[in-house]
Write a structure and sequence with these properties.
The complex is a heterodimer of chains A (156) and B (735). With 156 residues, chain A is mainly beta. Chain A contains one helix and eight strands, in the order αββββββββ. Helices cover 12% and strands 38% of the residues of chain A. Chain B has two domains: 30 residues; 702 residues, TonB-dependent receptor, beta-barrel domain (Maltoporin, Chain A, Beta Barrel), CATH 2.40.170. Classes of the chains: A mainly beta (156), B mainly beta (735).
């Protein structure tokens, strides 16, 4: 009986000591893609013209340090996916792609940035299929948290 | 943050409080142990056998039987075992789940059925364990490193599904199990037929299950910010069905026994249609909402076949056992073709894979094992060997892991020394060798590759011919001391796990998560060292059990999310790379039961786990799928009612704390409060007792998230109220 109490005492102590952790702060926040600015482009339901170059503009924020980002334009003629946004845009009828635009590129962000005004020039070839497209923004921070934004856009 | 800290302390105080109250309780006079005989189908196994096993085993072992499973019946075997502290699941939908023992899962926990190591696609979170829970009679859950028994992979623990007890001589009978569930409108039935003359026997079973979409307590879920309406609370396209066959047959004599096992488990189940993994999907709502029972795209089909023969015979002092086995796991995942990355917009006509077949894995495993158990004075010695070979083929238009072949062999010796009735010592050593051979793979489509400002279209090589070998020496040492009502145990052991093909050689985009997963051919075999303690007290009206552990991995294999995106192999997706880091973990489970009256008892079961990466890119972070602390409070009433046998009524309340300890890409999960009610009884009819069990899970239809659910990342709540009625009707024909 005495042994039991001693053991329980030790275990109680072990619990107390295990509860006082060395709370080292770790980053648990996702980076933020902000497209609410006046000159942010594209935004949900934006239209882009073929044969022209447009400038992607967005503001990225993170509590600690931004990582990198990538942009992706792919067709949504079959309406296979919806955007990540609240608003829905008017879509054309479902159709088969012939020569859909495909754009994938990744971009670096200078080290040590908590806020970054991203800009990128993207040229839409003149001969691609017009229609409903998706514009995907993937942003990471240094720790590997990733935020996705999928926008519905139209290529005219 | 402040809130989280205060929660933390609250929880600590709760545990400390419990321990103090135990010390007060423990001054009660110990009295005679309650010996209770439980009926296990055809044979009688007394509770004492389980107790004896616990007292003579230095690892922490929990044993449950089919009446536990029946009372706590969930959508799958692991979900039915979740009431045990330290045992959780990584589940998908209402019918599939993987075991999560003390925060470790996938290839770190092994499942053994009838002595055969279950080999499926253990690494995937989006499908369950291919086991028919109706065919389970007794399960042993080892919460701790058990590599010395099972070889590679048993780092976190083992789920050992014991062979069915043989029918008694000159019997012919069976049973019918019927189950209905309100939440997903599930109907299940399982029919068992067995028979035996003097030495020859058979035991067979057919299980069918059919369920609709499961319902959640909300009519809209948000996939990112996009609002997805749910029709009548149904989680669109999560219906499924299952059809399983089992047969065991053979000869059992006085010194010789040979048993053939055959089983085939087949499931088809849908994925939530509005998100394939993390990708938001547009769906034809009208088509999907027409019926809640149809299984449309995306869905998966898994077939698991097992055939084995176990021979046991006695030669003098020696008990020999050999087993040969074959199993095939065939998994296919279907979804509408979507040209991710550089895949062509229109699916080519002459492709090797059907247009809707996204992934296919076909695994064949051959295995052989032999062991010899004998006594030498106070030593009970077991020596044995296992050999297994496997061949893995891949298919479908999406690439994640290459095809590979694998060979494993192991040799072990285990000694249990019975010093006297109270003291037991254990020692085990094991040597393992493993070889894995991965095959080359090229994309079926071209990607643009830029070199010196020139862009060329190329078929990318995703994997190369690569052979890796591993060997490992593991050991384990333990002690048991059982003075009277108290039992104490301690075990120190090492375990290992050979890296799997996915960790060594994956090189593709997992579009379920929008991530480019990159294997690392330089990984070492994962090692783990663990100290397990156990303290148990059993007396007539009161029992308790505390099982703390400390665990250290010098080289835990971890899929690290980096900040980079890859344009060529990753088609613009975030790069996740396999790395190894030091990991330190500790935790404990606690269980106590107190009988206020002979018929009324209260139960508390709690669990706590802390994991931290001590080196590498995610130093300071936890591990993925870390279950938050939880406490279960239960009241159980078992009155004496004349015309009923063993009636029971129980109420459970599970408090699960919030989980703020996360690692990318996880999200913090809020606390939850869930109530369950269960009641049932056996009804005497002739020689056989019909048992009826009724459960109401999530009594108040609470909306909550489960941190370790596959659907957690897209914020899908857990199932709402679920009324489960199950019935077992045994029958026999006497001869």
């Amino acid at each position: 009986m005495k042994n039991l109490k001693l053991l329980l005492g030790i275990l109680t102590l072990a619990f107390i000591s295990s509860c006082s952790s060395d709370n080292a702060e770790i980053d648990t926040e996702y980076p933020v893609i902000d497209i609410t600015g006046a000159n942010a482009f594209p935004i949900q339901c934006s239209t882009i013209e073929r044969g022209k170059t447009f400038t992607f503009k967005a503001t990225f924020n993170d509590n600690a340090e931004l990582g990198s980002y990538s942009l992706d334009i792919h067709h949504n003629f079959d309406h296979h996916t919806h955007s990540t946004e609240v608003n829905t845009c008017e879509t054309e009828a479902v159709k088969s792609p012939v020569k859909p635009m495909l754009f994938i590129n990744n971009y670096t962000i200078p080290n040590g940035m908590k806020s970054y005004e991203a800009t990128a020039q993207i040229t839409i070839p003149a001969d691609v299929d017009p229609g409903d497209y998706h514009f995907m923004i993937r942003l990471t921070d240094k720790e590997g948290w990733q935020t996705l934004k999928g926008l519905s856009i139209k290529i005219l | 943050m402040k809130n989280a800290l205060s929660m933390y302390w609250k929880y600590c105080f709760l545990l400390i409080g419990l321990l103090v109250s135990i010390e007060v309780f423990s001054q009660n006079q110990p009295s005679e142990k309650k010996s209770e005989i439980k009926e296990l189908d055809e044979v009688l196994i007394s509770n004492n056998t389980v107790q004896k096993r616990k007292k003579e085993e230095s690892l922490n072992v929990e044993t449950v039987n089919n009446s536990f499973i029946q009372r706590n019946l969930g959508g799958s075997l692991m979900q039915s075992l979740q009431k045990l502290p330290g045992v959780k699941t990584i589940s998908i939908g209402s019918g599939g789940s993987k075991p999560l023992i003390r925060g470790l899962s996938f290839n770190q926990v092994i499942v053994v059925e009838n002595g055969l190591k279950h080999e499926g696609q253990q690494w995937g979170a989006d499908h369950g364990l291919e086991i028919d829970q109706y065919a389970v009679n007794r399960v042993e859950i080892i919460k701790g490193p058990s590599s010395f028994i099972y070889g590679s992979d048993a780092v976190g623990g083992a789920i050992n599904i014991k062979p069915l007890p043989l029918p008694s001589q000159n019997t012919f009978g069976g049973s019918v199990d019927l189950t209905g569930k309100s939440n997903n409108a599930q109907f299940g039935s399982s029919i068992n037929l067995f028979g035996r003359n003097k030495n020859w026997f058979f035991d067979s079973r057919v299980t069918t299950m059919d369920y609709g979409d499961y319902r959640v307590p909300t009519d809209v879920v948000h996939v990112y910010s996009y609002a997805v309406p749910l029709y009548k609370n149904h989680l669109r396209n999560t219906a499924g069905k299952e059809l399983d066959f089992h047969l065991s047959t053979g000869y059992s004599g006085e010194h010789f026994k040979s048993v053939f096992y055959f089983s085939n488990v087949h499931t088809k189940s849908g994925f939530f249609a509005n998100a394939h993994g993390l990708e938001p999907r547009n769906v034809d709502l009208e088509l999907h909402d027409k019926s809640s029972r149809d299984i449309l795209m995306p869905y998966q089909q898994v077939n698991h076949l097992k055939v084995s023969n176990t021979i046991s015979f006695q030669l003098g002092n020696h008990a020999f056992e050999t087993q040969i086995g074959f199993q095939n796991n065939f998994r296919r995942e279907y979804s509408h073709y979507v040209n991710h990355g550089y895949m062509p917009a229109i699916y080519p006509k002459d492709m090797y894979a059907p247009k809707d077949l996204e992934r296919q894995y076909d695994k064949d495993v051959w295995s052989f094992s032999a062991k010899d158990e004998f006594r030498l004075n106070r030593h009970q010695i077991t020596v044995g060997t296992n050999i297994a070979g496997q061949e893995n083929a891949i298919g479908g238009w999406s690439f994640l892991i290459p095809a590979f072949t694998q060979f494993n062999a192991g040799l072990f010796a285990y000694d249990k020394i019975e010093l006297n009735e109270k003291w037991f010592l254990h020692g085990a050593i094991r040597y393992d060798y493993g070889k894995i051979k991965m095959k080359s793979y090229y994309d079926w489509f071209q990607s643009p590759v830029s070199e010196n400002n020139q862009t060329q279209m190329q078929y990318l090589q995703r994997s190369q011919d690569l052979t890796k070998t591993f060997d490992s020496f593991t050991w384990s040492a333990g002690i048991n001391y059982n003075p009277g009502n108290l039992s104490l145990k301690a075990n120190l052991g090492s375990s290992f796990r050979m890296p799997i093909a996915k960790e060594l050689a994956s090189n593709g985009v997992n579009y379920h998560y929008f991530r480019f997963e990159k294997g690392n051919p330089n990984l070492d075999a994962e090692r783990s060292y663990q100290l397990d303690l156990g303290i148990e007290w059993n007396q007539q009206n009161w029992s308790f059990q505390l099982t703390p552990f400390v665990n250290y991995f010098p080289n835990f294999i971890y899929l690290n999310p980096t900040s980079a995106h890859d344009i060529y192999y990753g088609a613009g997706n975030q790069v996740f790379e396999y790395e190894q880091s030091e990991v330190f973990r500790y935790g404990a489970e606690f269980q106590t039961r107190y009988y206020f009256l002979k018929s009324l008892s209260a139960e508390i079961a709690a669990e706590y786990l802390y994991s931290e990466q001590k080196s590498g890119s995610k130093k300071g972070y936890t591990l993925p799928f870390s279950p938050p602390p939880s406490v279960l409070f239960g009241l159980n009433y078992e009155p004496q009612i004349n015309f009923l046998k063993e009636p029971y009524f129980s109420v459970d309340y599970r408090f699960t704390a919030q989980q703020n300890n996360i690692v990318p890409p996880e999200k913090k999960t809020a606390e939850s409060h869930v109530f369950n009610v269960a009641f049932g009884s056996k009804v005497k009819t002739g020689n056989q007792d019909i048992s009826i069990n009724i459960q109401i899970q999530n009594l108040f239809n609470t909306r909550y998230l489960n941190h370790t659910s596959f659907y957690r990342l897209i914020e899908l709540p857990e199932a709402g109220r679920n009324i489960i009625v199950s019935m077992k009707i045994p029958f026999s024909f006497s001869r």
